[in-house]
Amino acid sequence: MDAELVEIEATLGGGDFGQISIVGLPDTAVSEAKERVRSAILNSGWEFPKRKITVNLAPADLKKSGPIYDLPITVSILTLKYKFNFDFSKCLIAGELSLSGEVRKIKGALLMAIKARAQGLEAIFLPNENITEASLVKGLKIFPVNTLNQLIKHFGGQKIIEAVIQQPPETETGNSVTLTDIKGQEKAKRALEIAVAGGHNILLSGPPGSGKTMLAKAAASILPPLNDHEKLEISRIYSAAANILGQQIICSLPITRRPFRAPHHSASASALIGGGSKCRPGEISLAHLGVLFMDEFPEFSRYALESLRQPLEDGKIIISRAQGNLDLPARFMLIAAMNPCPCGFLGLKEKDCTCSLEKIKKYRQKISGPILDRIDLYVEVSSLSPMELENSSSTGNLTIIQKRIDQARERQLARLTNFSPPLNAIIPSGQIRNLCQFTNSALELLKTAAKNLNFSNRAYFKILKIARTIADLDDSELVAECHLAEALQYRTQL
């Protein structure tokens, strides 16, 4: 998740004529840079030094990988001959070179820009295609580079490259499915509104074709917009993941919308939580500050589901491996969907369920009690007949729903100034009574429900948090009995 600065040194002397030696734990891609560098220098019309060149990448005990060192290695070599009157100590240079001297797009540019600003550097020289990504970081002069010739003329003072004027990236708009497109399912839509407003986890259960997947996808249409800090935080994760996930990720930077990740149920635990042989962020980190949709929830491996315990509770995942530890952010909203039984038709009048009681019990036991206890809202999505679909109309106005959620989030921001993100779902259990005000009748109702329904301690406090979110949507300072009663109906079936 973090970049490390590498200082590149070059010196002349000894050895074979024109030989380049790169030291400092380079991998194959870095070692091969000497061929790209030599060709780029000659094809750009510059003279290559006629002595052996030794290039050192410091710190020497840090393994270097990738082609990002091509451009700074070339600059260090040409500086030996042309003695540029330029202060390189205040700038960062990164880029891949073609044999003709063109500068190609790299991965991880945002992480480099964040590190450069943190280290007090003033300027950063990057391939032109990485400029939009790096522009998320304020306080840096960012120079776009298209060719080696262009960069060398800048350092020589012959033709200065103009720093880009940083502009906020355009926010993507539009969503294929919106909440108001869905007919019927008013209880499920209300539950999704509550979940999005407070950052709560939700489980949708219903027969095939009842609309669980469409409801989950429609949740993206009511997610609040990202602020600048959140855009930078999410883009930082995707920039780190680009080294593994490839071009489809780097092309989406910077991230301007809350992520919506929907891994297939065959995904491994490493793909879900991160780690693996190359220590990559997993789907839960890629869903940070957004939504993780897990369709066919019981079909995920038991190990993968149990791995969700820590991130659901703490908003981060700590992975310990032989080569080191990873501490990755994972503050996501979980939307899970499942059928009521393996065949999916349990409880339907139109179709008979073919599952035995033993099969149904085994199917439901795939989701352990501790995982269910970490889910805030449970909603049964009923199947509508064609006649009911024809007669149902979509209710609610998307703009009004979004405004209600935005106002609820603003209330949480004012109340939870010391929390990041400021959401009701992450309030520590020990502080909820201090941060939230409840009427006496609401607390009496909760005591009665807890006694009769045998809630766990975690479920008890989750109900308080859900009720607080409902009160925020209702623009109420106090959590009243009606708010708590609505919250209880989303927990009783767990």
The termini sit apart by 37 Å
Number of individual domains: 3
CATH topology of the largest domain: Rossmann fold
For the record, the CATH architecture of the largest domain stands as: 3-Layer(aba) Sandwich
Question: What helical percentage do the residues reach?
Answer: 25-40%
The CATH class of the largest domain is Alpha Beta
- Read across the widest sheet, the strand sequence of neighbours is 10-13-16-9-17
Any idea what the CATH superfamily of the largest domain is called?
P-loop containing nucleotide triphosphate hydrolases
User: Which secondary-structure class do the elements indicate?
Assistant: alpha/beta
Radius of gyration: 28 Å
Residue fraction in strands: 5-15%
In this structure, how is the largest beta sheet organized? 5 strands, parallel
Strand tally: 19
Helix count, DSSP H or I runs of 4 or more residues:
22
Specify the overall morphology: elongated
Unreliable runs: none
Write up what this structure looks like.
The protein is of the alpha/beta class and 494 residues long. The protein folds into 3 domains: 7-155, Ribosomal Protein S5, domain 2 (2-Layer Sandwich), CATH 3.30.230.10; 179-223 and 258-395, Rossmann fold (3-Layer(aba) Sandwich); 400-489, no CATH class. The protein is 39% helix and 15% strand. The protein is built from 22 helices and 19 strands. It has a 5-stranded parallel β-sheet. The protein has a 3-stranded mixed β-sheet with strand order 1-3-2, covered by helices on one side. Helix 7 (186-198) crosses helix 21, helix 20 (440-453) runs parallel beside helix 22 (481-489) and helix 21 packs across helix 22. It is elongated and about 85 Å long.
